[in-house]
Amino acid sequence: AVVSTQSGHYYTDPNDGTCYEWDEVQRAWFPRITEDFLAAYQMSYGLSEIDCASTPVAESATSESTNLKPEIAVSPVTQNQDAEFSDKSEVTESSKGTEEKPLVKKQKKAPEWFEMDADKNTWIYVSGLPVTMTSDEFLALVGKYGIVMEDPDTEKKKFKMYTDEEGNFKGDAKCCYFRKESIPLAIQMLNGTKLPGSSKRVKVEQATF
């Protein structure tokens, strides 16, 4: 039976006891995420700590160059020998100038694809969303199944909604959860559902890079 309170409308499934909450924005029933629900879900799927991905800091080693003049053993020479030695030195210096190779600029490497460790990948890719969905509506939808991470530099949620050349939303997006346990929960609860304003069914999967 549906129970209505000042905070919303709730429905309890008599088969498994799951409590559902009516979402006025999406016009659909969604499981009510409570501490008891998360505890039961974590007991079913197991809970493991997430290793924080440590970003290695590239250290550039600098060395101070010193101009050391080579020591030349000087032996007594005659005036003719001194002139001959001076002529040879001039020829040697001039030949060095002609033999210098031009500097070759290093070419930058093209960006390469990389594979993120599955244990540290907490991104999900969602498709089949209504093209009229806003960023706030998308965050509210995926936020039902876990905490969306924030960028430490910008303090903004880490998500992306794909648009066409004219800036219109194409119906697919991705977001980064704080815990990897949110990924199977979002797949179980949201995958295959149909949202108002879309003729497609929602597809949720772990994002690949």
Strand order of the largest sheet: 1-2-3-4
Helix content: 10-25%
User: Any low-confidence stretches, pLDDT <50, length ≥5?
Assistant: 48-75
Global mean pLDDT? 74
Total strands: 8
What sort of overall outline do the alpha carbons produce when their principal axes are compared? Answer: globular
Number of helices: 4
**H and E order:** EEEEHHEHEEHE
Cα-atom Rg, whole angstroms?
Answer: 34 Å
- How is the main sheet built? 4 strands, antiparallel
**Content of β-strand:** 15-25%
Helices and strands: which structural class?
Answer: alpha+beta
- End-to-end Cα distance, whole Å, is 45 Å
Could you characterize what this model shows?
The chain has four helices and eight strands. With 209 residues, it is α+β, with helices and mostly antiparallel strands. The strands form two sheets. The chain has a four-stranded antiparallel β-sheet with strand order 1-2-3-4, with no helix packed on it. The longest helix has 21 residues, at 79-99.
